[in-house]
Design goal:
The complex is a heterotrimer.
Chain A: H1 8-16, H2 22-40, E1 43-46, H3 48-63, E2 75-79, H4 106-113, E3 117-122, H5 156-163, E4 169-173, H6 180-186, E5 189-192, E6 213-217, H7 220-230, H8 248-252, E7 260-264, H9 265-268, H10 274-289, E8 293-297, H11 305-320, H12 343-366, H13 369-382, H14 388-411, E9 414-418, H15 434-439, H16 445-450, E10 454-461, E11 467-473, H17 479-492
Parallel strand pairs in A: 2-3, 2-4, 7-8, 7-9
Antiparallel strand pairs in A: 1-3, 4-6, 5-6, 5-10, 9-11, 10-11
Chain B: E1 19-29, H1 54-57, E2 66-67, H2 68-80, E3 88-89, E4 92-95, E5 105-108, E6 115-122, E7 132-143, E8 147-150, E9 159-162, E10 169-175, H3 182-199, E11 211-223, E12 230-233, E13 237-242, H4 245-266, E14 276-281, E15 286-289, E16 302-303, E17 310-311, H5 314-322, H6 328-339, H7 343-351, H8 354-367, H9 370-388, H10 399-410, H11 416-429, H12 433-439, H13 447-460, H14 462-469, H15 476-486, H16 492-507
Parallel strand pairs in B: 13-14
Antiparallel strand pairs in B: 1-10, 1-11, 3-17, 4-5, 4-16, 6-7, 7-10, 8-9, 11-12, 11-13, 14-15
Helix pairs in contact in B: 3-4, 6-7, 8-9, 8-10, 10-11, 13-16, 15-16
Chain C: H1 5-14, H2 21-38, E1 62-63, H3 73-77, E2 88-90
Helix pairs in contact in C: 1-2
The chains are: A alpha/beta, B alpha+beta, C mainly alpha.
């Protein structure tokens, strides 16, 4: 029995009642990371000394009867594209391998204020571009349920460390499904909040109008706890919503009887894995048995979600990643002396000048293939002559997708469907065919395009032993509804309590 | 293509066989405390890279938030330029790579600028150009880039980058190509700068880069004899690196001649070659082609997802409009109609800036005589400022004291003949009027005493009286001299009049 | 929608990438595939539909013009690949 078998809420109760000390919790977390993470590879950086010092400080203050924050003593893992002043922030890219931000992201500041223990930084697809964490330039992360399979992505490290009980709480980010899909692949609970609910200040941007930070935990209740500590208006983020933060823990305790759920029949009956179809269908029976009212509903434009997404996200990314040019921070390709250049390189240097050459070498060497692909795609789509046909067209379809949701939420309180068409795939299965990888995002991208919340909870396990995710989506700021449905489901089932087989 | 004409350029001073077409893009730094999208200070002259933060360095994860004051100042300016302010405006990213642009894009406004379709009237009573209305295409807000220093010292090939200026709020004001000469361009810039300083939206300091000008220029050359006349347009050239209004004037003059000569030599017309950018070389007084960035025109503008749109209601605009300060043109008109100042003098006073205009107004209001106030301010005050290298802010004679000085002259308390002497002492010794008068022993002489003195003098000099009565009025001068000798405070003009009146009375 | 290596080369310069001949081929194939897939958007009637650039309908978010602390110069330069303690250093910019 490990302390980390407890949920975050249970741990918090143990800490508050002085049955365990923060230092014990953190020590246990650190030792589990040390013992169990090497074959999984969730962490890029472990804040060993800093975490222990912070835990001792919490214990000391609690001992002196001084006030402590809402998450005092709970270890939290951060996806490594959230800026931390005291730890490297790499985006799993060569470009930022040695980058140390001189500032904290707003969510990090809030976690510190809540006395959460920042235990380390987790692996991801480079700059969050990917759905398998395979595009990380720094390390491979494996699915704890089956190490031949990917953990999903881009928040693969955060998902894997939660699934392995290395920490009770983690933050991920979701631009097109990057919290929900790895949550589904790793059998955990992951919530992408409403756009604007959690500050993006200090979140290294992939696609600014789609990115959102959210909790990745073992249960909806723990997600409610972490969302509570991180949500809220931030004047440093112009796109942050000035909307009151409800009491999520109170909300999840409400019964779900009478809530109207729209079943995304089209998604369910499309080309999804039969085991996923069955598990999701069974989940609807559970929710019905708890009093939810189910009806089929359709989002007519959601079939265009992937096409829309793979215009808008790369366009924004191509601009967001222009700053990595080797001038002010990050990697810079070494300047070769004239003698070291090949003939063609000398010719390039001659025609472009040393600065452009430095830019191009830096970016060519600093970025991996997937990042380059998206930069190219976005640059192409925004370039003269293509803007209207691609970017503008996609922004119009985006509104149609949003309008579909608005219409649906006039009839129902939440939507239900699969998170992914397949369970976790094998390494290399899709990495050579970008389009097939992108198509895996079909069920998740629409929520990002529309700016609406979505949640993934475990609802089954395949014969092969891989987790299956249930997708719950809601209207703007309906996190309480989604968490309430998820919590009720988790009270009635034990899928969220299943653990990967220990090897 | 029309074959190049064989005629030589006309001699200087001759009527030029073409029309000069100039449009100006003016970048004005707005008078804020902080940058456009972060709260770093914008103080000029700080040590390099000491006024930066994650936002303006473009560090990963940092996000922009619009400066409320910068937006307000841009609306104030746009209203003063008679622009339309659309109800909705947004922010766009202009993508290009340059080391002083740390994000790899500039936040600017592309297709929906915060203002458009305005104008600026040029009414130059000093005669440098005719009255013209110059249309403004648009004015939009954008962030400035940093500074690149290209080291020319041998062996140090690196370019050094200072990001203090990065993110400074700029208002870009783009005119229609309505300007027809370098003189008009200068007059436009002068009036624009005056307007901006009157509004207090910018200090317009060109040395510190608070006001920068780029010019687009080409020629319209009439050819053939058909009606309507066929016009050939030369390729448009953008001129950069002009560091003063004088440089703008000279660069335009140079470029106009160069384009005409080039057209004569090559016959190249607009559209036959890409738009060229040339830099003004202030030392050699020539424009030189700048290396064109190979794909620089593909800026891939798109709406900045990190910033939200700005909307403005008519009520908000009217509220701002009602707080607009008096503009130079309105003040000129007021000086002419309310203060009796000539259009020429109104121009002189107003063009010196709001502080001098306020000084004039205070002087005039104190003494109640606009014309006299104008004479004193445009002559004595401006001359003394120039000689002493003083600004009106540091001018030693406060406006109310000058007003009282003029009043004293009008009231006869201070002889007109000694007024400039008094002014000089007040200026040199930094004294107020009363102290100066008493130091100089100038006391008011009441008219009763003067009349008594006059009677005495006339009684003692019957010959002068007779001469005057015989029509030799100038004879009175001797008595005025005697009067001044007996009392230095006597105003010669006043004394002369009293003496003449007394003679007339005795004759009557 | 076929994207040729020549188009790729142009875009790579715009994006300041420096693809090898091999990468260029693969990139052309991948981009063609994705852009081809994206073509399906053209079948949707979007006339009269306003483009949606933001996921949240916010307006007029502004901050007061009050100075806040800047980074120290050391902190600002701390991540720079090359600096001289005062300035960021980059290879010479030609032609300016």
């Amino acid at each position: 029995m490990s302390l980390l078998d407890h949920s975050a809420l249970e741990l918090l109760a143990l800490l508050q009642s002085n049955q365990v000390r923060a230092e014990q919790v953190v020590t246990e977390s650190l030792s589990r990371i040390e013992q169990l993470d090497p074959p999984i590879g969730s962490f890029l950086h472990v804040n060993h000394d800093g975490a222990l010092a912070a835990a001792r400080d919490v214990d000391r203050r609690r001992h002196l009867g001084q006030p402590v924050g809402a998450l005092a003593g709970l270890p939290v893992a951060l996806k490594d594209l959230i800026c931390t002043i005291d730890q490297p922030t790499t985006c799993a890219s060569r470009m930022l391998a040695n980058f140390r931000p001189p500032y904290d992201a707003t969510v990090v500041a809030r976690l510190r204020a809540a006395d959460a223990i920042l235990i380390g930084k987790t692996n991801l697809d480079e700059f969050a571009m990917g759905s398998s964490t395979e595009s990380s330039a720094l390390q491979r992360t494996r699915n704890p349920w089956n190490r031949d399979h990917v953990p999903g992505g881009s928040s693969g490290g955060s998902a894997a460390c939660i699934a392995s009980d290395l920490v009770p709480l983690a933050l991920g980010t979701d631009t097109g499904g990057s919290i929900r899909q790895p949550a589904a692949f790793c059998g955990i609970t992951g919530l992408k909040p409403t756009y604007g609910r959690v500050s993006r200040y200090g979140l290294i941007a992939f696609a600014s109008s789609l990115d959102q930070i959210g909790p990745m935990c073992r249960s909806a209740a723990d997600a409610a706890l972490l969302l509570q500590a991180t949500a809220g208006h931030d004047r440093h983020d112009s796109t942050s919503a000035d909307v009151e933060v409800p009491d999520y823990l109170k909300a999840i305790a409400q019964p779900i009887s009478g809530l109207r759920i729209g079943i995304l029949r089209q998604q369910l009956d499309s080309d999804v894995d039969p085991e996923i179809h069955r598990a999701v269908t069974e989940a609807t029976y559970v929710l019905k048995s708890l009093g939810a009212l189910c009806q089929d509903i359709d989002l007519p434009h959601s079939q265009y979600g992937v096409a829309t997404y793979y215009v808008i996200a790369p366009c924004e990314a191509s601009s967001n990643l222009a700053r990595y040019d080797g001038v002010h921070y990050g990697f810079r390709a070494t300047q070769l002396t004239a003698a070291e250049l090949t003939a063609s390189e000398s010719a390039d240097l001659e025609s472009e000048g040393p600065l452009v050459r430095m830019y191009r070498r830096t970016r060519e060497t600093g970025f991996g293939a997937e990042v380059k692909r998206r930069i190219m795609l976005g640059t192409y789509a925004l370039s003269a002559g293509y803007y209207d046909a691609y970017y503008l067209k996609a922004q119009r379809v985006r509104r149609l997708i949003r309008q579909d949701f608005d219409r649906a939420y006039q009839q129902v309180d939440a939507l239900l469907g699969p998170v992914t068409p397949t369970p976790a795939f094998r390494f290399g299965e899709k990495s050579q065919d970008p389009l097939s990888m992108y198509l895996g995002d079909l069920f998740t991208v629409s929520a990002n395009l529309a700016g609406l919340p979505g949640l993934s909870i475990p609802c089954g396990i395949t014969v092969q032993g891989l987790p299956i995710g249930l997708h719950l989506q809601g209207p703007s700021f309906a996190e309480p509804t989604l968490l309430r449905l998820a919590h009720a489901f988790q009270q009635a089932t034990d899928w969220h309590a299943r653990r990967p087989p220990t090897s | 293509m029309t074959p190049p004409p064989t005629s030589t350029p006309p001699p200087v001073g001759a009527v030029r066989p073409y029309t000069v077409i100039v449009g100006l893009e003016v970048h004005v730094q707005l008078a804020t405390h902080t940058k456009l999208f972060c709260r770093c200070p914008v103080k000029f002259g700080a040590p390099p890279n000491t006024q930066t933060c994650p936002v303006c360095i473009g560090l990963p994860g940092a996000l922009p938030v619009l400066n409320e004051t910068a937006y307000y100042l841009s609306v104030v300016t746009a209203l003063a330029l008679n622009c339309e302010i659309p109800a909705y405006t947004k922010w766009d990213r202009k993508n290009y790579y340059y080391p002083d642009l740390p994000k790899g894009y500039q936040i600017s406004q592309f297709d929906l600028p915060m203002s458009c379709n305005g104008w600026l009237d040029l009414s130059d009573a000093q005669g440098r150009c005719s009255n013209r209305r110059i249309r403004i295409i648009r004015a939009h807000l954008e962030e400035d880039a940093g500074k690149s220093m290209h080291d020319e010292i041998a062996g140090r090939a690196d370019t050094r980058i200072d990001l203090n200026r990065t993110g400074t709020p700029l208002l870009e004001i783009v005119s229609q190509p309505d300007l027809r000469s370098s003189a008009e361009a200068k007059a436009y810039l002068t009036e624009l700068k005056l307007l901006l300083t009157y509004l207090g939206v910018s200090d317009c300091n060109m040395q510190e880069g608070s006001l920068r000008v780029d010019a687009n220029v080409n020629l319209h050359i009439p050819v053939g004899s058909g009606t309507p006349e066929e016009i050939i347009e030369t390729p448009i050239v953008e001129i950069k690196n002009m560091n003063s209004f004088r440089a703008v004037e000279r660069a335009l003059d140079f470029e106009v001649d160069r384009q005409y000569r080039e057209w004569q030599a090559t016959g190249k017309q607009k559209g036959e070659m890409p738009k060229q950018t040339r830099g003004w070389d202030d030392i050699h007084e020539v424009t030189k082609p700048q290396r064109s960035k190979e794909e620089s025109s593909d800026y891939r503008y798109f709406p900045d997802p990190d910033l939200v749109p700005v909307t403005t209601t008519t009520d908000q605009l009217e509220a701002i409009r009602s707080t607009l300060k008096e503009l130079p043109a309105a003040l000129r008109l007021r000086l002419i109609t309310d203060y009796g100042v000539t259009p020429y003098d109104a121009d002189v006073i107003v063009n010196q800036g709001r502080t001098l205009a306020d000084y004039f107004l205070a002087v005039a209001d104190q003494c109640g005589d606009g014309k006299q106030a104008c004479n004193w301010v445009t002559q004595e005050v401006l001359r003394s400022m120039k000689e002493g290298n003083l600004t009106i802010e540091s001018f030693p004679i406060p406006s109310l004291e000058l007003g009282r000085l003029i009043q004293s002259v009008q009231a006869g308390k201070l002889p007109r003949s000694r007024a400039k002497e008094v002014f000089g002492v007040m200026l040199e010794q930094i004294l107020d009027l009363d102290t100066t008068l008493s130091r100089l022993g100038i006391q008011a002489v009441d008219s009763g005493a003067l009349t008594d003195l006059g009677r005495e003098l006339l009684a003692a000099n019957p010959k002068v009286v007779a001469d005057v009565q015989a029509g030799k009025e100038q004879a009175i001068g001797a008595l005025v001299g005697q009067a001044k000798k007996s009392n230095p405070n006597v105003d010669p003009g006043v004394m002369r009049q009293i003496l003449l009146d007394l003679i007339r009375q005795s004759a009557g | 929608m076929k994207i040729e290596p020549a188009d790729v080369s142009k875009v790579a310069l715009l994006a300041r990438l420096d693809l090898s001949a091999e990468e260029m081929q693969a990139m052309a194939a991948h981009l063609s595939g994705i852009v081809g897939y994206v073509q399906q958007l053209q079948e949707i009637d979007t006339s009269g539909v306003e483009p949606m650039a933001h996921a949240i309908e916010l307006r007029n978010v502004m901050a007061k013009d009050v100075v806040a602390a800047s980074l120290s110069r050391d902190a600002a330069l701390s991540n720079a690949p090359r600096h001289d303690g005062e300035y960021y250093l980059v290879p010479a910019v030609l032609g300016e």
